[in-house]
Structure formats: structure tokens, C-alpha cells
Amino acid sequence: MASSSREDGPPEDASAAAPTYAGMADLVPALPLETRCSPFALRQYSGFWLPEAVLLRGIPALHAGFVPRPDDVLLASFPKSGTTWLKALAFAIAHRAAHPPSSGDHPLRRSNPHDLVRFVEVGAALAGRTDDGMDAAVAELEALPSPRVLATHLPYSLLPPRVLAANNRIVYVCRDPKDALVSSWLFTRGASASLGVDTESFTLSEALELFREGRCFYGPQWRHVLEYWEASRRAATSPAVAANVLFLTYEEMLRDPAGNLRRMAEFMGCAFSEEEVAGRVVDQIVELCSLEKLKNMEANRSGRRNTSGIRSDAFFRKGVAGDWSSHMSPEMGKMVDQAMEDALRGSGFSFCQFINSDERRLTTGGSD
Ligand code: A3P
């Protein structure tokens, strides 16, 4: 297992109790570089491969200026693990009083889920290279009304200490590495091509090799998952001292969307009442947030771009478990499984806990 050594950790500020990231502009250019995962350059930092812009601006701005609130809910995920779905579900849960899911004018019918639930590190990362731009991105988060539903791809170990100290509720979604890899490879090719970057030469075999080495967006995936899983276990045994983490899996959500929706609502502190259940509010949210429904909303159709500049339709594809086998050979699948098993040996966590070997193809109804 890779160590979580902080040799390449944030520049220390002797006058502050928590580490500061003020010196990242000097540190980042010296960090190991990976350019094969287009369109963004990745740098290895604190054991993870993160987009350069997130390291230069996203993390410093977040750690310096983000002020958590007790009722914040943070959705966390490794990319291509079901983040878009989780965002839609959490938004619909949190705002169901103001926006009943049956409403024809529901925000999810007008906006991409990524525009309704923002990644806390992305605004500043995309902001210009000025302190003003970074401050403005954090101020935008500050301006959101409570209760805020926010999201992050950051590893647990790089969350701002203030978030952990505030004991904010964190919902994490984890997915079969093979499906996350294939989904990511297809997404990267699509996103890069739409930015004019040639992706024909980026093969799945190459993506697999990089993934096995952890050289991928926010990778290694196994380490990302493990950190949140361990935090969820600590939260279960000593909630007073650890962040509050609900650990979900994409596969379980496909198997039982209503049951997992109810778990989420309870965890978020706004459980469904008996009247709501009887009034089919749970079913209505599940339906509103289904892949088929969201994919066909005008806001998510081909051509429209979300606030990060990515085409909104790129986030919706098949939405099934086991689709990796449409793209990878069984041998390639075994290579991924073996790499994960080796990396996780002795950790207490295994992807086999929730991924069936028969790879039942669970679907919410999408297609390529
Ligand atoms: P596939 O590429 O396997 O179809 P993320 O949101 O983290 O980027 O993950 C994207 C994956 O989630 C894609 O998987 C996408 O199709 C799937 N997805 C998006 N919206 C979904 C929804 N409402 N229900 C189920 N899966 C969804």
C-alpha cells in the first residue's frame, strides 16, 4: 500500500496551527508531472494525482477562505463514480419543501446538477490567476443560502481541517474501479475532443496502465475510496471526534434507489415523513433523478455547457453496473481487480464487498 507520507505536503507557516497553502505557486512546478490524462496536467501531491489548477488555486483558496456551516452537506467522490446522480438526489432531498419533485418547474428540469451543486475546489481552480478571482470563487460559496449542498473530488486527507472540525455531514459514493475507469476513459476522450485535443491515441490499455499506477484524476482510486471508508468507520464508532461520513456505493444505489435515498435523507437530517412516503415523494425524487429523465432534460441535452465549460450531456451515458465488459477483455478486468486487491491488502476494505462476481448488469435505462 502506498504510504500517506506528507513529504510533499503544504508549505508550513510557523505562525499558524494548521498548514497553509500560501506557497503552492512555488511548490507545484517542482512536483512530479503526468500529462497523459488529457486535457489537464496532473501533479502528484500528498500521494494523489491532482489537476494542477486545483493544487495551484483550488486547494489554497478553499483552505484559506472557506467557512463551513453546521448544516452543510458535502458530497464526495472519485470522478466517474456517480457524482452527478448523487448531486441531483441530494439537491432534490434538501430542497423538496421549496421545490417539490413533482413540480414542472423543478430546478433539475432547468439546470445541470453540477450547476446546482458546486464543487468547492473547482471555482477557484478555474478562476484567473489572481487572488481576487480565487476570493470571488470562495465568496460565491459563502453567498449560497443554507442548507448548502456542496461537492468535492478532493481526497479526505486534503479536506480543509475546518470542515472536519465542524463535523460536517459527508456523503461519499464509491464505484467498481473497472466501471469508473471505463467511464473516465470515455469521458476524458469526449471532453478532450470537445476542447480540440486529439484523443485518438489515448487507448483504453494506456488508461488502464495509468489507472493501475494511480496516475489518473484524483487517483489512486483505491486510496481515495479507502480514506473515506476509514473515515466512515471512525464516524460509526466515535462520531464525536470524527467527520460524519455516509459511505454509499453506486451499485447499491442502482439496486435499491429508494432505500438509499431514504438513508441519505435521514443522514442529511431531513428524513422523509410518513406523509411524504405515502404521498410518493421518495418515488418522485427517484424518478426525477433517474438517468433517463435527467439525460433528456433540455438543460442536459447535447450542445449546452455547464458552468465549468463541460458539455452537460457528457455526464450521462449508460448508468449501469458491469459495462466495463463491453470495452475491456476479462483479462484486463482481472488486471484491475488484482491491482486493487494488492493495493488494499491488509486494509480491511475490499471492492468485492459490494461488487458481484457475476457482474449483474443493473440499469436505470441509459444507452451509449
Ligand atoms: P457511465 O459512463 O458508466 O454510464 P460522475 O457523475 O461521477 O461523473 O459519473 C458518471 C457516471 O454516472 C456515468 O456512468 C453516467 O452515465 C452515470 N450517471 C449519471 N447520471 C446518472 C443517474 N441519474 N443515474 C445513474 N447513473 C448516472
**Which structural class fits the helix and strand makeup?**
alpha/beta
Number of strands: 7
Q: How much of the residues is beta strand, in percent? A: 5-15%
- Please list the strands of the largest sheet in the order they lie side by side: 5-4-6-7
Distance between the termini: 35 Å
The residue ranges in which pLDDT falls below 50 over 5 or more consecutive positions are 1-7, 357-367
Q: What hetero molecules are bound to the protein chains?
A: adenosine-3'-5'-diphosphate
Helix content: 40-55%
Describe the protein in words.
By secondary structure, this protein is of the alpha/beta class. Helices cover 42% and strands 8% of the residues. The protein contains 17 helices and seven strands. The strands form two sheets. A four-stranded parallel beta sheet has the order 5-4-6-7, with helices on both faces. Strands 1-2-3 form a three-stranded antiparallel beta sheet. Helix 13 packs across helix 15 (281-288). The longest helix is centred in the middle third of the chain and has 18 residues, at 177-194. The protein is globular, with a radius of gyration of 20 Å. Residues 1-7 and 357-367 have low confidence and may be disordered. Adenosine-3'-5'-diphosphate (A3P) binds at residues 77, 79-85, 88, 179, 183, 289-291, 294, 315-319, 323, 364, 366.
